[in-house]
Design a protein that fits this description.
Distance between the termini: 95 Å
Low-confidence stretches: none
Number of helices: 23
Oligomer: single chain
Mean pLDDT: 92
Strand order of the largest sheet: 4-3-5-6
C-alpha cells in the first residue's frame, strides 16, 4: 500500500485514465486530421496546385501550421478531462466514498492532475511527432515550426487545466463549475466590454467605444492566437507569384509566463482542495471568500450595463440632456443592482429567505460603492472623456469626417492635439448639441490616435452645422478651428488626393454626362470617347483637367469638410453635381500611401505583406462652384453642352424623389 503522504497513486492513475482515455483519443484523431493528414492531402496535389504560385513544400507546411489554432484546443479539452477526473467532487456518495479510502487528499489531487495533463497534452506531442515524421520523409526540415506550435498548445492547455481545477474547487455543482470556468477565462474581457458598453451610451465622445478591442494576456484563448501565432511574410512578384518568404516564432515569453501562472494556479487549487469541506457538495459556491466577491461583481457589472441600456432606450424614444441621461442610468443601475444582489444571495444560500438586517447593511455598503463608481464615471475621474495622449506616445493621428486625413509629422500631431484639447476645454454645450440645436442639421467627426505601443484611442463627436445662425459663439470657438485646419488646400491635396498629388501622372479620368431618355424616363450616363488619341495626348488632356481641379481646391470649392448633414441638405444638393467625376493618380517610382487605409489600420497587420501600390483612383463630387474643372472638362471635350450637367437636386426633382 502506498503511503498516505504520497503524491501519486498508480491504481488511481489507471482508474482516471480508464475514464478519460476516450476523450484523449478523440482529441488525437482531430489533431491528426487537422495537422499531418491535411498536410499529406495538400502534398498529394502539390505540384499541380502550388508550383506556379512559387510555393515550396516547406512553405506549404509552415503556412498550414500557421493557420492551426493554438488556444482553442486547450480550453475545451482541459475542462472536459478535469471535469471527468474530479467528477466525484459533485456527488455526495462518491465524494464521501473517495475521501474515506486510505489515500491522502494530496495523492487524490496530484494523481488526478497528472492523469489530466497526460490525457490533454500527450495527443499534442504525438501529433507533433507524426507531423515531424511526415515532414522528414518529404525532406522538409521546418521542425522548429512544428514543435513551437506544440509548445504553444501544451502551455495554454496547462494554463487552462489550472483554471479548470480552480473552477471545480469553486463550486459544489458541476454545471456551475463549468460556468465559472467560462467566467474565469473571459473575466477581464467581460469587464472591459461592460465598461465599454456603458461608456458608449453615457460618456461624451465614446459612441464607438466598442471599436478597437484588443485582446490582452488576461484573455489567453484569444491573445495567444495573435501573439504566439507563427507569422509568415511573403514577397510577391508582379505576376502574383511568391519570390521570397520568411517566418517568425513570436511570443515565447508569453508561453513561459503562462506555464508559470499555470503552476501557481495548480498550487492554489491544491490548497483549496486540501481545505475543501465535504459538506460543500452541491453548494453554489464552495469557497467562502468567493461569495461576497461573486455577489458584488455580478451586481455591479450587470446593473451598470443594464442601467446604461435603460438610459439608452429612453434616449432613443426621447432625446435627453447629458446629465439627465446619466441620472436615469444611475437610478436604474442602483435599482437593478439591488435586485441582482438579492438574486445572487438566493443562489448562494439556496433559499428565498435572504432579507436580513446583516444583508441589508451589506447591500447598503455595496450600493454606496456602486453610486460612487458611477458618479466617478460622470465626473470623468478616470480621464476617459478628456483623454488626449502625449505627443511622444503617438504614431499618427487621424480625423474622419466627410473625408479621412491621417497625420504623422510631429508638427501635425501637435496641431491636432491642440485642436482636440481646445474642443474639450468646454464640454457642457458640446455634450448636448443634438438636444440644444435639434433643428440644425448634424453630423459627426472622429479623432483616432494610433499609439506607438500599438493601441488606439478613438473618440467620435456629434456636431451640428457651423454655418447655422443658431449656434453659439462658444460652439464655433470649439469647432471652427477644426474645420479651418481640415479645409486647408495643401492638407486636402496631401491627404485626400494623397502623398503623390504633386508628383504624378493622370493615366485615367472620366466624367459622366447625363442625358434624359424618354423611353426609360430616366437620365442615362454617357462618356466621351477619345479612341483616336495616343496615350500621351490622353494623359496631357487629363493633366489639364487635374490642374484645373487643383485650382478649385485652392479656391475652397472641392473636398470641403462641413459639420452638417451632407445627404439631406437641400441647399447643398442644389449645387452638388449628380455627374460622376473620378481620376487616377499614378507614380511608378513612389509608393502611394492611403490615409483611409492607414486610418482603418489595414497597413498594421504584420502577418500581411503589403504589395506596394503606385496608383489610386480618386472620386470627387463636383459642385457648380468648381468652375475651373467644369471649364477644363468642356474645353477638353468631356462634355459639350451645359444641359449634360445636372445637380442632385434637379435629378431628384425630375425623378419625383423629393418630398413635397
Amino acid at each position: 500500500m502506498q503511503s498516505k503522504k504520497s503524491f501519486f497513486n498508480l491504481a488511481l492513475f489507471k482508474k482516471n485514465i480508464s475514464r478519460t482515455w476516450i476523450v484523449g483519443l478523440l482529441y488525437f484523431i482531430i489533431l491528426l486530421i487537422v495537422m499531418p493528414i491535411q498536410f499529406i492531402i495538400n502534398l498529394a496535389n502539390f505540384d499541380e496546385i502550388n508550383y506556379e504560385e512559387g510555393y515550396t513544400k516547406t512553405l506549404n507546411l509552415i503556412d498550414d501550421i500557421s493557420y492551426v489554432p493554438i488556444g482553442v484546443w486547450g480550453i475545451f479539452i482541459a475542462i472536459a478531462v478535469t471535469g471527468i477526473t474530479f467528477w466525484y467532487l459533485f456527488f455526495k456518495r462518491d465524494n464521501y466514498m473517495m475521501h474515506s479510502f486510505p489515500v491522502s487528499r494530496r495523492s487524490l489531487y496530484f494523481t488526478g492532475l497528472i492523469s489530466s495533463i497526460v490525457v490533454s497534452i500527450l495527443p499534442v506531442i504525438l501529433t507533433a511527432l507524426v507531423t515531424t515524421i511526415v515532414a522528414a520523409a518529404e525532406k522538409i526540415y521546418a521542425f522548429d515550426v512544428i514543435w513551437f506550435w506544440a509548445l504553444g498548445v501544451s502551455a495554454t492547455t496547462l494554463l487552462f487545466i489550472g483554471i479548470a481545477i480552480i473552477s471545480l474547487m469553486a463550486s459544489g455543482q458541476i454545471v456551475t463549475s463549468i460556468i465559472f470556468y467560462g467566467i474565469f477565462n473571459f473575466l477581464y474581457l467581460m469587464m472591459e466590454v461592460a465598461f465599454r458598453i456603458t461608456a458608449s451610451i453615457l460618456m461624451f465622445g465614446m459612441s464607438n467605444a466598442m471599436n478597437n478591442i484588443s485582446y490582452t494576456p488576461l484573455t489567453p484563448v484569444f491573445f495567444v492566437d495573435d501573439a504566439c501565432k507563427i507569422k509568415v511574410f511573403k514577397m510577391y512578384d508582379n505576376l502574383g507569384n511568391i519570390k521570397t518568404y520568411t517566418y517568425t516564432l513570436p511570443g515565447l515569453k508569453y508561453l513561459l509566463i503562462y506555464i508559470a501562472v499555470a503552476i501557481a494556479l495548480i498550487v492554489v487549487s491544491y490548497i483549496l482542495y486540501e481545505f475543501k469541506k465535504l459538506e460543500t457538495v452541491q453548494d453554489f459556491i464552495a469557497i467562502p471568500f468567493l461569495k461576497p466577491v461573486f455577489t458584488i461583481g455580478m451586481s455591479f457589472f450587470i446593473s451598470m450595463v443594464a442601467g446604461a441600456l435603460v438610459a439608452g432606450m429612453i434616449e432613443a424614444l426621447k432625446p435627453m440632456y447629458y446629465n439627465t441621461r446619466f441620472i436615469v442610468a444611475i437610478i436604474s443601475a442602483l435599482v437593478i443592482g439591488c435586485i441582482v444582489f438579492y438574486a445572487t444571495q438566493m443562489l448562494i444560500e439556496k433559499t428565498f429567505r435572504v432579507f436580513s438586517t446583516k444583508k441589508f447593511f451589506f447591500l447598503a455598503g455595496y450600493s454606496l460603492a456602486s453610486l460612487t463608481m458611477l458618479i466617478c464615471l460622470r465626473m470623468d475621474v478616470f480621464n476617459v472623456e478628456n483623454k488626449v495622449p502625449d505627443a511622444a506616445d503617438i504614431q499618427w493621428v487621424g480625423i474622419d469626417s466627410n473625408y479621412v486625413m491621417v497625420f504623422s509629422r510631429p508638427e501635425d500631431i501637435s496641431a491636432v492635439r491642440d485642436l482636440h484639447k481646445n474642443f474639450l476645454s468646454d464640454k457642457k454645450e458640446l455634450r448636448d448639441v443634438n438636444k440644444i440645436y435639434n433643428d440644425v442639421d448634424s453630423g459627426y467627426f472622429t479623432i483616432k490616435y494610433k499609439l506607438k505601443s500599438g493601441g488606439f484611442i478613438e473618440r467620435t463627436y456629434s456636431v451640428v452645422n457651423t454655418e447655422s445662425d443658431k449656434v453659439s459663439a462658444n460652439y464655433l470657438a470649439a469647432t471652427q478651428p477644426i474645420l479651418d485646419y481640415l479645409n486647408n488646400p495643401t492638407r486636402i491635396k496631401e491627404h485626400v488626393i494623397g502623398n503623390i498629388w504633386d508628383d504624378c501622372t493622370i493615366p485615367d479620368l472620366s466624367f459622366s454626362q447625363y442625358v434624359y431618355n424618354e423611353e426609360a424616363d430616366d437620365y442615362w450616363p454617357e462618356y466621351a470617347e477619345f479612341e483616336t488619341l495616343s496615350d500621351k495626348e490622353l494623359t496631357d488632356k487629363n493633366e489639364n483637367i487635374y490642374q484645373a481641379f487643383l485650382k478649385d481646391i485652392d479656391e475652397g470649392n472641392a473636398f470641403v469638410t462641413t459639420f452638417g448633414d451632407r445627404y439631406n441638405n437641400t441647399e447643398l444638393a442644389k449645387i452638388t453635381l449628380y455627374n460622376d467625376f473620378n481620376f487616377t493618380v499614378a507614380n511608378n517610382k513612389k509608393e502611394y500611401i492611403s490615409d483611409e487605409m492607414t486610418f482603418w489600420d489595414w497597413y498594421g497587420d504584420d502577418t500581411y505583406y503589403r504589395t506596394p501600390e503606385y496608383e489610386r483612383s480618386i472620386f470627387a463630387q463636383l459642385t457648380t462652384n468648381c468652375t475651373n474643372t467644369l471649364k477644363a472638362l468642356k474645353d477638353e471635350g468631356f462634355y459639350t453642352d451645359d444641359s449634360q450637367i445636372i445637380t442632385t437636386y434637379e435629378y431628384n426633382k425630375a425623378m419625383g424623389y423629393l418630398e413635397e
